[in-house]
């Protein structure tokens, strides 16, 4: 979603954390979601910063999320 809102300025980083230390580590994830029926599109200020071109398509958040889950977790 941030990629769409930022018109491609920010992208999700692929990552995996491996703890090779004998010390105990804690990770706290924070997720923020719009309503399922929210239309997500590039913010105008981000479009202007990229020269006026819309680099990403609009998406309905719920449809986007369902497609992500299907692509990542359904064989």
Characterization of the model:
There is one protein chain. With 75 residues, this protein is mainly alpha-helical. The chain has one domain (2-12, 26-73). It is 31% helix and 5% strand. The longest helix is centred in the C-terminal third of the chain and has 13 residues, at 61-73. The relative contact order is 0.25. It holds the Pfam family 2OG-FeII_Oxy. This is Isopenicillin N synthase-like Fe(2+) 2OG dioxygenase domain-containing protein. Residues 2-34 form the Isopenicillin N synthase-like Fe(2+) 2OG dioxygenase domain.
List the keywords.
two-stranded antiparallel ribbon; mainly alpha; 31% helix; IPNS-like_sf; 2 strands; 75 residues; 3 helices
Can I get a quick summary?
The protein has helices at residues 2-5, 44-49, 61-73; strands spanning 39-40, 59-60.
Query: Strands of the largest sheet, in order across it?
Result: 1-2
Q: What characterizes the major β-sheet?
A: 2 strands, antiparallel
Number of DSSP helical runs:
3
Shape: extended
Strand-helix topology:
Layout: H1 2-5, E1 39-40, H2 44-49, E2 59-60, H3 61-73
Antiparallel strand pairs: 1-2
């Amino acid at each position: 979603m941030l990629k769409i809102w930022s018109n491609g300025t920010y992208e999700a980083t692929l990552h995996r954390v491996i703890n090779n230390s004998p010390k105990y580590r804690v990770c706290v994830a924070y997720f923020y979601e719009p309503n399922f029926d929210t239309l997500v599109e590039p913010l105008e200020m981000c479009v202007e910063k990229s020269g006026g071109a819309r680099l990403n398509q609009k998406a309905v958040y719920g449809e986007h999320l369902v497609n992500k889950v299907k692509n990542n977790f359904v064989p």
